[in-house]
Amino acid sequence: MSNDDNYNSDELEAPAWLDKHFLQDALVKHFKKPSLIATESKISPASAKGDHYASVMFRATVQYSVQKRKFSKSLIIKTMPQAEGHKKEFLADSKIFQTEIAMFTEVLPKFEAILREAGEEIKFCATCVYHSLDPRPVIIFEDLVPQGYQVIRDRYATLTELRSVLGKLAKWQAVSFKLLKEQPGTFNELQFDLTTLSNFLEHDFMKTALPNFIDMISQEENLKEYRKYFEPMRENLLKRWQDVVREYRENRQSNAYYVLCHGDFHIRNTMFNNDGDCMLLDFQISYIGSIANDLHYAKYMLLGPDERKDRCDELLFYFFDTFVKTLLKIGYQGEMPSLVEFRRQIFDRRYSDYMLLTIFLPGSYNMRKGKDPGALLQDENLRKQLYQDKSYKQELEYLLPRMMHLGYFELPEQK
Q1: Does 376 have pLDDT greater than 80?
Q2: Helix, strand or coil, per DSSP, at residue 54
Q3: Across-strand partners of 56?
Q4: Which of 19, 43, 243, 283 is the most buried (most CB within 10 A)?
């Protein structure tokens, strides 16, 4: 395999506009140093194949000087794909950059300031250096790699790392829970989730996933008894999952715990350092929704198989305990959430569980192998092969009985 095969093909060559003059202008505005001069820039792909799909990303190492003093800075540049094709069509008319810019420049800095005022120094994400929507969507932020953070690629996250990232999410969501009751206008721009991407639920990848899953378990001696639970979902799984995701906007429940959801809370959207800290990445589809949503997502896209099997309850309790302690710390005066109600709300939104188990978890196994997610969107044979993954089938042999024992296959009534 050549080095080029390790990267997304649309990130092998930077667009012409991404040169040292553009980067100089961005740094001048960020540092407010008109005398700053970029002397050299080196552009390379920012991430490995399979890390992301909804953008193209580059790493720029910029050499620059300010009043004869020399400096170097590593930056990450995120922009929209220019090449015609499926990715460009998929992202057409989306609000992903508007959402991420709002998160980087307004929402997350506000969260950090609230926690800082309560005595907790915390940073959720990299520092945004530059952003623009015209003439093209682009966001530049500091590269976290020189600061000691790494994406986990060749292993599963440890229990300590999982507690770190779930603890950070709990603090983020506690602040949002309080602000939603006190200053709901803070989140006016965050109206766009995964289901609002152009024709997302109409893609073959989504529509053929459950049938492929049912076909696979029908042929497995240890799994075929569960087919009867999934057959009734053929007609409505995608719609019912969409209802869960859009609940706050379209069918708000008076007693629900609503928070700012990350929206794509998986292992490749986190970075860890050796001191146990983590940073969160990719806020393109963050939205207001049930507290259950990111946690369902984390179960299948963040945790490894051992943690899914043996540590889910422990990690959910850790998240909830951190969430409540943070509410107290930041001075929340309303009725405090209860663990029993928290668990009930997660259970009631179990259509997300079905969705993630049957569609996203096999995709996660594929992602961990460094495969290109774009290929799955266009090749039905590859999509069918997802369900033949040996490790995935082994997980189903204990996940499906557990779901049955917990009552997951008694389908929730529509509210």
Answers
A1: no
A2: coil
A3: 79
A4: 283
Judgement on whether residues 80 and 169 belong to the same structural domain of the protein: no
3-state secondary structure 383-394: HHHHCCCHHHHH
**Taking Cα atoms as reference points, which of 249, 246, 289 lies closest to residue 265?**
289
412 in any annotated domain: no
Q: Is residue 119 part of a domain?
A: no
Full domain range(s) for residue 240: 145-405
| Same-domain pairing of 175 and 46 | no
Which pair of structure tokens corresponds to residue 392?
């995935």
Strand partners, 142: 75
Which residue from 261, 238, 263 is spatially nearest to 355, judged by alpha carbons?
238
On whether residue 116 sits in a domain, the answer given is no
324 and 176 part of one domain: yes
Over residues 42-100, the pLDDT tens digits come to: 999 877 655 555 678 999 999 999 998 999 999 999 998 865 556 656 666 789 999 99
Residue 328 and residue 291: Cα distance in Å, rounded? 18
Q: Is the pLDDT of residue 275 over 60?
A: yes
Whether residue 163 is found in the same domain as residue 57: no
State both tokens at 21. 């003059």
Contact 237, 355 (CB under 8 A): yes
Q: How far apart are CA 177 and CA 326, in angstroms?
A: 11
Same domain, 66 and 151: no
* Rounded Cα distance, 376 and 276, in Å: 34
Task: Look at residues 62, 90, 118 and tell me which one is the last residue of a structural domain.
Answer: 90
**329 and 120 in contact (C-beta within 8 Å)?**
yes
236 three-class SS = coil
Q: Is 137 within a domain?
A: no
In this predicted model, what pLDDT tens digit does every residue of 311-358 receive, in sequence order?
999 999 999 999 999 999 999 999 999 999 999 999 999 999 999 999
Give CA–CA dist 14/30, Å, rounded: 22
What is the distance, to the nearest Å, from the Cα of residue 269 to the centroid of all Cα atoms in its chain? 6
Work out how many domains the chain is built from and give that number.
Answer: 2
Same domain, 183 and 247: yes
